[in-house]
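Supplementary Methods, section 5.1.

A reviewer requested that the exact input to the structure prediction be made available. We therefore reproduce it here, unchanged from the version used in the analyses.
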Amino acid sequence: MTSIPQDTSGEPDRLRARAVMDTRPGCHDDLMRVLMPVPDRDFDVTEVAVPWRVLTDAGHEVVFATERAGTRPAADPRLLTGVLFGQLGAEDEPKRFYQQLTQAPEFGDTVAWTDLDVTGFDGLLLPGGHAPGMRQYLGSPELGAKVGEFWKLGRPVGAICHGVLVLARTQDPDTGRSVLAGRRTTCLPKYMERTAYLTTAWRLGRYYRTYPAYVEDEVRGALDDPGAQFERGPKELTRRGTASDDTHAFVVRDGTYLSARWPGDAYLFARRYLDLLRDAPGA
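The structure derived from this sequence is encoded token-by-token as follows.
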């Protein structure tokens, strides 16, 4: 899906010490390390840049991981220029955050998925995106295995939009079911995905349909009781949360797991993820 709000805040101080790569949880009173895997290309601008900015402004370290180490990833270019006739792209503030992110050392210093030692991270954040390049990330068995290892640690996990698919597809080896089987969750709602597709298909084809199945359908299929566990949230297509107003944003928290629907939830999602980190044992 596309994104989101106007800039309502000033430029905060960006000076912070960058943690060394072998920092372990609890080694610093305030600093936590959050792992953010991304594909090589086509991730959602807002769903990556807003959480990165919020987390780093709070003093935390975000470590990016790609399929191969040292890859400099790139967001979906249509979200930077406008999906259709210059419209439907990311809003100005998230685009500014993304430009800052592209200059950050950690963005090009990515860790390979297979090289990850997940015990060295305090949190995991799974962003979304819908363009074809996302399949590299959403369907990776190597990344899925690392996500499963982290999930069993019981530490904070956040997923937004298509990012929830990574969890839906990750099996608990003890049960053979998805790690989301017993959890409450949201994800990109079917009506949002369908509307975006029908609005743009005449020009962009299946750009908004990452897979034949809708995200919501696959996520609901991973749950033990979808009717009780899946939360679609208030129906929204245009109104979005902003940096200062959460009225139209929606997230679901279930223990140490946080989920959100689309870029319109990104600011609230990022702030609630900070709450997860603060509430984590040993924080």
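The domain at 33-279 is CATH 3.40.50.880 (Rossmann fold). These observations are discussed further in the main text.
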